[in-house]
Every structure is written in C-alpha cells, then in structure tokens.
Amino acid sequence: MESLTVWGGKPLQGTVHVRGAKNLVTKAMVAALLGETESLLKDVPAISDVEVVRGLLEVHGVVVTEPEPGELLLDPRNVKSANFVEIEVHAGSSRIPILFCGPLLHQLGEAFIPDLGGCRIGDRPIDFHLDALRKFGAVVDKQPNGIHLTAPNGLKGAHIELPYPSVGATEQVLLTAVRAEGVTELKNAAIEPEIMDLIAILQKMGAIITVEPNRVIFIEGVEKLGGYSHRAIFDRNEAASWASAALATEGDIFVKGAKQQELLTFLNIFRKVGGAFDVEEDGIRFYHPGGALKPIVVETDVHPGFMTDWQQPLVVALTKAEGVSVVHETVYENRFGFTDALNQMGADIVVHRDGLAGVTRRVPRRPLEQAAVVTGPSKLHGADVRVPDLRGGFSHLIAALTAEGESTITNVGIISRGYEHFGEKLQALGADFRVNA
Ligand code: EPZ
Question: Is a pLDDT exceeding 80 seen at residue 356?
Fold first, then answer.
C-alpha cells in the first residue's frame, strides 16, 4: 500500500479492536530466546515490526509457528549463530535488533547486530545500551555496518545507572541481567506499562526481578529460564491514536481492548481538551460530545507522564481547539516533522527549537527539546502529503480525514509498522478513502 486518496470531513464512527502493544510484543519475542523451552505469545498484532523480529529469530534457528491467529509459538531449542547477510536482510526499519545482544551472548557467546532503523525522530543513539553491556562484561566491537559482541568471561551482574529513563536501555539491561551471574542493580529505570509487562513475562520464565518505588530495579541472575505463556498488554499508542481521531473528526469510536489504568494521563488530557470517554468492561468509548475544543499546554515525559507517542495524533485535534495550545516534546529532538503537512492543510503550528524551561522537571533538560505552538481553530483543507514516520504518519491520516476535500497521502506503508489492518479499521469507521496502486 503506497498511497491513499482520502476525502475528509466525515466523523469516524464505529468500533476498532486494538491488540497487543507493538512496543511489548516485539520485546517479548526476543525474550523467548532466553528460555530452554517453548514460549506462547498471545494477542500478537499483524504488523511489520513483528515480521522483522520473527525473521531475525528464524535466522538464528528459532522455530516460530502460529497455533492460532494472533498467537506465536516460539521454540528456541536450536538457537544458532547467523551470518551477517542473513541478519542484515531482516534488520529492516526496526530498532529491536539491539535487544538481541544479551540473549544471543547468553545462548551463543557472541552476537552480531546490524545498524538500526526506526523512525527519524532524533539521532536515537544506543550509548546507554552499549555502556550497560560493557558493564556486564561484554566486549563491543564497532564494525562498518553494525556491532559484533562477545563475552570472553561470561556476563556478570552490574551496577548500572541510566542517564535518562530509556525504555530500550532498560529492556537491554533486563534481557541481559536475568541470566547474568549475580545481582544487577539498575537505577533511573523506565517503568512504562510495557516494561512492567516484559518483567511479568521474565518472571513467568523464572527470573527474579524487584522493582523498587524509586524506579530502581534489582535482577538476581539465574542459571536457566523456561518458556512463558502470555497475553500481551494492549497497544496504548494505537488506542490513543484512535481516540484523537474521534476528537478531530467529531466522531465516536469504541476502542475494544483499551484499558483505563494504562491510559490515565491520556484520559485526563483528552477530557481537558473537550473529549468525552466511557470506560466499559471490554474497552473505552471515545467521542466528541459537541461544543468547542479547548486549547491546552501539555509536556511529554516518561511514564506515568504524557507519552511522547501520544502528542502527534493529539496535535491534529488541537488545530480545531479555540485558542493557543503548547505541546512541549521533551523525549525526542525532532518529533514535530509531521506539523509541516498539517500547516500545508491550513493549520497554524509554529515549532520552536528551544523547549520551555521547566525548573521542576524530573529529567535533565535536554538541549534540543522542542515546543509546538498550535493556534486554532483552523479549518483544514485537503493537500498532497508524504508520511515522515510512524506516529506522524497516523496524524497525517487523521488530518486528511478531518480536512474538507481530497488529500493524497504517500509512503503510507510505514503506518502498517505499528497499526494493524488500519485500512480495514478506517473502512469500519466509515472513512471515505481509496487505496492507490
Ligand atoms: C521506545 O523507543 C519506543 N519504541 C518508542 O516508540 C517510544 O517513543 C520511546 O520508547 C519512549 O517511550 C519501542 O519500544 C520499539 P528511549 P526507545 O530509549 O526505546 C535517548 C513508536 O512510535 N537515548 O526511551 O528507542 C533517545 O535518543 C516508538 O512506537 C539515548 O540518548 O526510546 C531519546 O531521546 C517511537 N541513548 C530518549 O533517550 C540511548 O542509548 C528516549 O529514548 C538510548 C536512548
């Protein structure tokens, strides 16, 4: 699916079913490498990021089958080294390969990780990951197109303090420490719900992991781990994206599978902007209750703050709010690229390279944080736009569905990296669009 033609201006109404979180499922698949027996993962979404990780597991000898639709059975009993070419083919546009380091070092004593892909939303270094691996005793050898790692004296528990509560680096430490010799202490860890779900999976495998109130995590290394059977946490980012779509198009969307606890901060902001929601047993109904949308000042942060992945879809709704909103992005250096297309459609968004100084902010002020000032209400009109990244891409879609008139959106394939069957879902919501060849 390369491009879509969208005729906007119609409220999105209906039900979408959100399944397992892209940012948990892919890591749970890597965790299966650490087990001596098979693992069963449920509620796996059909997204390309899952296919990338499946390919990488298979080239390393893991047998992956689908007992039921949405389930993966992962058999790691014949793990083997893979050659660079095989790995390179599967690395794709994902960042997940970096998380193979610990498991492959434990299983094979070495790992080759190709240079990473992933959304262009900042330079996305992996220094926290490599520093942590070295502390466990890994030897990291930078090569032209990736890194080669060995662990000549095995992997030993370490004292690690992250400069920033990085989700990926926290997962790197967890996936390495669980079978390292001795205890690992991880300070300034990320504690996103997807991290806690990964910890639950590792505990099912036999790991001993303690999360302290001050975001310090202790992991007591164990000799060996078994497999797991686990139903993945729902995708909070996808749920928040459809909620923003309901608000922006003045629609009414029931997001089946969404849960309130993991969306508390999002729900507060959604309500403050003027959205309404009803929490049901099996999902959440998000709708525009009528009346004007209100402007808001919101700052992205680590959990339990407002997630950086939620701001892109919300900004589209903010273009319709009556007044000036400010969205302060503090996690990535360049996550407002999508606003160019919104301005092309008639929005009034100014992006400031320097963020807002928050003296009480918990995380160190990052030199390149950004603030987007959104002045509304704007009436969006159709335009021809190109998708820059995953979450920004979904915002282009929402904007085109909100705009009066016809839009053509190219490079939409990126959206299927993180949104399962989004074409069918748009159809179910009554969207007016055509898939171009
Ligand atoms: C994960 O990325 C998610 N991706 C991101 O979602 C999400 O936005 C992010 O966490 C924050 O919640 C996956 O889980 C696959 P980080 P990750 O390490 O782990 C800097 C989406 O759309 N940093 O918490 O890469 C980094 O540059 C994606 O689903 C270093 O400086 O995020 C960033 O500024 C987008 N050095 C900040 O920390 C490092 O070694 C947070 O990154 C690692 C990170």
Answer: no
Q: Which of 82-96, 179-193, 401-415, 418-432 has the lowest mean pLDDT?
A: 82-96
**From ligand 1's centre to the CA of 394, what distance in Å?**
18
CA of 168 to the centre of ligand 1 (A): 6
CB-defined site of ligand 1, < 6 Å:
22-23, 95, 119, 122, 124-129, 164, 166-169, 237, 307-309, 331-332, 390-391, 418
288-318 burial string, b = 16+ CB within 10 Å, else e? beeeebbbbebbbbbbeebbbbbbbbbbbbb
Query: Mind telling me the catalytic residues?
Result: 119
Cis previous bond, 304, omega within 30:
yes
Q: Write down the pLDDT at residue 287.
A: 98
The answer to whether the predicted template modeling score (pTM) of the entire model surpasses 0.85 is yes
**Ligand 1 atom 16: residue of nearest CA:** 166
Over 60: is that where the pLDDT of 366 sits? no
Strands 323-329 and 3-8 come out as unpaired
Torsion sign over Cα 320, 344, 389, 401: positive
How many angstroms is it from 67 CA to the middle of ligand 1? 32
- Domain 3-18+234-435 is of which CATH architecture? Alpha-beta prism (3.65)
Q: What is the mean pLDDT of residues 37-66?
A: 96
Helix (H/G/I), strand (E/B), else coil: 287 = strand
Segment 93-100 shows an average pLDDT of 89
Share of the chain above pLDDT 70, in %: 96
Q: Which residues contact 409 (CB under 8 A, 6 or more apart)?
A: 3, 4, 6, 384, 385, 386, 387, 393, 396, 397, 400
Of the pLDDT bands very low, low, confident and very high (cuts 50, 70, 90), residue 405 is very high
Q: How far is the CA of 378 from the centre of ligand 1 (A)?
A: 32
Instruction: Output the residue whose Cα is nearest ligand 1's atom 8.
Output: 309
Q: Which residue has the tokens 């509620």?
A: 43
Angle at 118 between CA 194 and CA 366, to 5 degrees: 75
Are 184 and 221 in contact by the 8 Å Cβ rule? The answer is yes
What is the pLDDT averaged over residues 223-246? 98
| Mutation choice for ligand 1 from 167, 307, 308, 366, CB with most ligand atoms inside 8 A | 167
pLDDT at 332 over 90: no
Radius of gyration from C-alpha coordinates of the chain: 22
What's the CATH code, domain 22-231? Answer: 3.65.10.10
Map out the domains of the chain as residue ranges. 3-18+234-435, 22-231
Atom in ligand 1 nearest the alpha carbon of residue 119: 35
Determine which residue's CA is closest to atom 10 belonging to ligand 1: 167
